[in-house]
């Protein structure tokens, strides 16, 4: 009971909020440790129902785990002591004094990394940033990793890729590039060649997109994007990853579309979509590295068609993307929502569909606020300016412009 008393004292000292943020990850970790991973929405429900104290959260997760399997009693006591402490305070991850064995430290890191990849699309951007930063510090400082430098480098490279994506949504393009450079350095120390391909993939998309809407210095550089994607596709070492190869091909197609090379763009897009059809998160070692869940595939087609000035098939692809998104994350409020909704508004603008534009822009504003994505908010501001110029008589646009401080 002394450990639980200590946890409650920590909570009284102001750690309750931090405990809540780490709770989802730790709850999933506990369940996975006992061979029965829980869905994130189940863990979230547990957090809401048992969220009065972090100690209660830790205990309920342990009890669920024990019902699924029966490890040795000594192992249970050891894990319970460590994991209840972790559930009580995310700050526990910062302490190199935690007595993790190497196997335990790797288990904690791999499980949390898997949680982060999944949650990064569905949870608030700031929450993911905080959890990823905690995990990175843990990997950098814990002595259990001293004999596992290559494995640690692989894990750190993935965390930097997540942080690079988060930095884009926090409108920190220079920080994004810094994380990609660090990911590249760690990938060179890692035995996993897929990491190098992933870094080139992320760099390429950074050159395809405007990383800071409204600021020309961060605008698209498709010539540089082409080189990144071509280099990534030329790397043949390591296991096959249909998802990562599809994402590289899709990025290449998008770069061609920005250069108005219509034939090359559509041909490469078709190859990318064919390649994606054979991917599976269960069997593809690069599935999460590609950061391309199913809803992003028709959304990529939308971007390419709009770049080429083609409207046929755009609405069908957009509706398919929305359907796939809602099937996977019906309650999600993360960056996935913040990436999907502004694209709907951009399509409506391109099609001069006022009714769809107003509906999609309202959803975009809500998505930006719910997800914490400053990138999405910047897109909303840009779309509002364009929408007001197209339909100055629409009062709702004027109200939203005042709400998000859009200058004329």
Automatic annotation (TrEMBL):
<dbReference type="InterPro" id="IPR011990">
    <property type="entry name" value="TPR-like_helical_dom_sf"/>
</dbReference>
<dbReference type="InterPro" id="IPR001387">
    <property type="entry name" value="Cro/C1-type_HTH"/>
</dbReference>
<feature type="domain" description="HTH cro/C1-type">
    <location>
        <begin position="4"/>
        <end position="57"/>
    </location>
</feature>
<protein>
    <recommendedName>
        <fullName>HTH cro/C1-type domain-containing protein</fullName>
    </recommendedName>
</protein>
